[in-house]
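We modelled the chain as a single entity of 183 amino acids. Its sequence is:
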Amino acid sequence: MHAFLVLVQAGAHAAGAPASPFEVNFGLFFWTWVVFGALFVALWKFAFPKILKMTEERERAIKLQLDEAERLNAEAKAAFEKNQKQLALAHEQAVALLNEAKVAAQKERESSLKKTHEEQQQILDRARKEIGAEKERAITELRKEAVELSIAAASRLLDEKMDSEANRKLVSEYLSTISGMKH
């Protein structure tokens, strides 16, 4: 391997290459700068404008995409806020409907209780009237019986025409028959 390196160095000296890395070859230096300058001018004239144009187009496309993303984000936020407001409104309406339903149920309950109370009062009034009518009929019946009994007792007294001892005996018997009827 060492022999190979020696051969490469010998060939490099023969071609005019520097013997050490610190040795400067001005001819090589000049032509390197000429090639670099020509390449730079060619790139400046032909490649850089196209590269710059593509970079600017890419920048515009990215900017448009960012603007579109911001617009969509703003729309999404607006839609979210709108949905939140609608949700809050729907919640308020639901609460209002529930309150209305509670009030309506309370009114219906009170109405039913009032109607039931009125019906109960009507039934009680009818029962009182019927009881009063029955009481009057019973009193009338008792009066009729009392009158009939009085008439019957008087007619017996008149028919018998007895003395006072006989009248007392007759009334006692009559009273005993009446008390027998009651039991």
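As a brief sanity check on the tokenised model: The mean pLDDT is 84. The helical segments are 2-14, 26-160, 164-182.
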